[in-house]
Write a structure and sequence with these properties.
Length: about 220
Amino acid sequence: MHGKNPKKPDIKSQLLIIIQTSLCLVVIIAAVVLKSIGGQFYANAASWYFDTINNSVFTEGIAIFNPPADKSEIKETSNISPTTDNAADLDGEIMQNAAMPLKKGTITSPYGERTLNGKTQYHKGTDIGADKGSEIFAMLDGTVSIAEKDESYGNYIVLTHQKGIKTLYAHCDKLCVKKGEKVKKGQKIALVGSTGDSDGNHLHLEIIADGKNIDPTSVIGKEFL
């Protein structure tokens, strides 16, 4: 008695295997090419996709992958000169009673225009050099809206206060409060360090009013000691 002839592979199944294998190879090659070109290319491509395609078509204008507005406006330097210069643009009564962010320190990089590597930048805060581990204090009563680590800012905190005022404390060695926590003026919130894009132990301090930076020395004084 003769056995049955083995069933020949279906042509459609063979084509499907070939197509799947080809797609895998294309993905692998594309990944290798993108990696060789550099991360910036990928970042730009992803940004274009989410802003142009995903944002306008799939999310109806809601940028679900973009950072919150509270965070996107916070950058240590800018190519545009700050439009708000001093504490006169803030509520005088509030800032008059503000606490000092440090007990002792020396201003090492002031607010405003500065030149680094031949390029003009606008420093949106004031750098105050201090010993590592020095206590950093909340300047006003408020709520911790950000308390995390960033590639540039290192460990940093943003406090939200009354009447659209925010204060930012960056390059900290350690954070002592968490997001959502209520803090009091003069309360210890962090320790001085040199995390992130920093060349020494210091506090990068920013004061922001309605989305605009002001010169912190108009509040803490130009000869901070």
